[in-house]
Design a protein that fits this description.
By secondary structure, this protein is α+β, with helices and mostly antiparallel strands. It contains five helices and 13 strands.
């Protein structure tokens, strides 16, 4: 009788110890929706991001072969996002790209090209300056690959496929929720890795944006730096500006 009582007490103790551990394990499971929500919260929150109606951003691109300037304009509508980028070299615009839901328009000194189909869809889905906000609008569903470590930082690895053909890997800091890397994992010999850094509030908004991207090509060791030099929010861009 006494032995049975002791055995019952020991069994209950094991169960009591096991239950919290199991509950803790379940609690630690993370979904891609939670990672995306934490990122939006980290850069300012859903309400602040939703207040951004348009963005005009100027970025300086520094490469081994010289410098260039990229001016991007974005208009956020209820059910679509319009984006236009102008690429300058030596002060001259050498390319203008307009990304619309069904078409991309490329303007160069040689002439204008209308792009349709898969290429247009892929370009449009990738064009937004705040891609996490754009995912549900442009029809992309990111997937949580898992947790990994890059340059000593614990990160959530999220993969998104654009146009059904172009996979992009993004990495979000487990602690802060901010996106801090884009590209290939450290165990890949070739490819590239972009360090996403220098988060600051955009002028006229409480929303944070990475003002510096450092891209390293693992094979050539070449480094490309993209720096935000100017950004304007809610200046009244209209659909007719995206032509």
């Amino acid at each position: 009788m006494k032995k049975n009582l002791i055995a019952s007490v020991l069994l209950m103790a094991v169960l009591l110890v096991s239950l919290p551990a199991h509950a803790e394990k379940q609690k630690e499971e993370v979904t891609v929706e939670q990672v995306m929500d934490k990122y939006i919260e980290a850069i300012g929150g859903k309400k602040a991001v939703a207040k951004i109606k348009d963005i005009t951003m100027t970025q300086k691109i520094i490469k081994p072969d010289g410098e260039s300037v990229l001016v991007t304009k974005q208009l956020n509508k209820k059910d679509e996002i319009l984006v236009m980028s102008e690429y300058y070299m030596n002060g001259l615009m050498v390319r203008k790209s307009v990304y619309l839901p069904e078409q991309a328009i490329i303007v160069m000194p040689q002439g204008t090209q209308n792009v349709n189909g898969l290429m247009a869809k892929t370009s449009y889905q990738m064009a937004s300056l705040i891609i996490e906000q754009a995912y549900p609008i442009v029809g992309v569903t990111p997937v949580l690959v898992g947790e990994t470590t890059i340059k000593g930082k614990k990160v959530y690895h999220v993969r998104a496929v654009f146009g059904g053909v172009m996979a992009v890997n993004s990495y979000y800091d487990v602690e802060t929720g901010l996106k801090i890397f884009i590209g290939d994992t450290e165990d890949k010999e070739d490819g590239f890795l972009v360090e996403v850094t220098d988060y600051r509030k955009m002028d006229g908004s409480s929303v944070l944006f990475p003002f510096k991207l450092i891209q390293t090509d693992r094979k050539t060791k070449n480094i490309r730096i993209t720096e935000v030099s100017d950004v304007k929010i809610n200046k009244g861009l209209k659909e007719e500006d995206f032509k």
